[in-house]
Design goal:
Radius of gyration: 19 Å
Number of helices: 14
Largest sheet: none
Length: about 300
Amino acid sequence: MQTGLGWAITSGITMLLIILDGKVALASASAGLELCLRTVIPGLFPFLILSQWINRGLGGYRIPLLGKLLPSGCEGISVCAFLGGYPVGARAVGQAYEQGKITRQQGEKMLAFCNQSGPAFIFGVAAAMFSRRWMGWVLWGIQLLSALIVGICVRTPKATPSARVSGNFHQKDAMSEAVRTMGVICGWILLFRIILGFLDRWVLWLFPDPMQVIVYGLLELSNGCCLLGRISDEALRFVICSGLLSAGGICIAMQTASVSNGLRLHWLILGKCLQSLISIALSILFLWISKITVAF
């Protein structure tokens, strides 16, 4: 009861703020819609469809390295996660749980490392913020390596699911599923873009640019990465970008909760925190090896 009352009060205050400062809400919603149309949908929608075909096509095939981390026949989920980006991997895990291929415990642990920033976003958005384009490859490599390390740390149990759900799969199913998932993702992005609009107007301008980028990225990854250019030091920008890509942020967590069929997020949160720390450490190590000075 108290939780429901708290949400009601918070929602009422938010509604009042939107009414009193409607221009900010409208401008932020427009910016969020433009972000979805220009970046998120073109970069993610094809992967939402293709990931389902990949997952179905690889079902039953063993990939030796990934087979040590994942339940039998679920290696395709990691391929979807590494190639598709947020939250394609989470959706694949949720579907596997819904179909009875994995247990709840397996699914929740898989969320810790099967939900990553994909190459389309890294090369299309993040890499554009650096003068050295090959840094995009390094960022992607760090994401893959850190995810595998997290996977080793939270290795999923090999227990057999208690039940299995079978059914026919058609290509049209992939399209309708992708459209529904894309709508959920864009809805969360619009909501968080409005939140960021109010924070930027009232609070964030008080902080230095690197802190603003971090807050933006931890709330909504796409907006945070688009603002990386505010950080003048390229080495520091690289480290922050690497950490944000691995963390995903609160908006990604909400998207994951919406597409993972009721799986709890405690392992996801733990995995993302751990992966972010690992990615930051690997980024600093790379910069040290490549003799690029980081100005902290």
